[in-house]
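Internal tracking record. Fields below are filled automatically when a chain is submitted to the structure queue. Please do not edit lines marked as system-generated. If the sequence contains nonstandard residues, flag them in the REMARKS field before resubmitting.
Queue: standard
Priority: normal
Entity type: single polypeptide chain
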Amino acid sequence: MPSFDIVSKVPWHEVANAVTQAEKEISTRFDFKGTGAEIEHNKETINLRASADDRVKAILEVLKEKLIKRKVSLKHLDVGKIEPTGKGGAKISVTIKEGIDSDHAKQLVKWIKDEKLKVQASINEDQVRVTGKKRDDLQAAIASIRAREFDLELSFVNFRE
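SYSTEM-GENERATED OUTPUT FOLLOWS
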């Protein structure tokens, strides 16, 4: 029986490259001199710090610009609120989301069932598997999912006959 999986994967190497490029730009730009602007990248979080709120927002815009150039969807980002630091500065924590959480997976399965497509969807950990009798049915399902706007970056993998 033909099937495919719907996943939400982050290209981590592109995220790391975008952070490196953003760090280089911040270190060379005149408007960031003396503001203590810095980017700290851990596995799933990116911390942005500067001496003022507007500089932190500017760092965030530089980071977003670099991610877009690297073709990393901004739907993977969960941007926190600006928080004051102890030295009178500000910081923002950006979390990178990977995988389809249970709420979004349930929403996706429900939407597929409501569309009355000739396919079945099931949740497997952080992905959704769609099966059908014909390849054309699966391709129609992919086309209809792409046409609808979800707040996750979805990709289709493991298309099997």
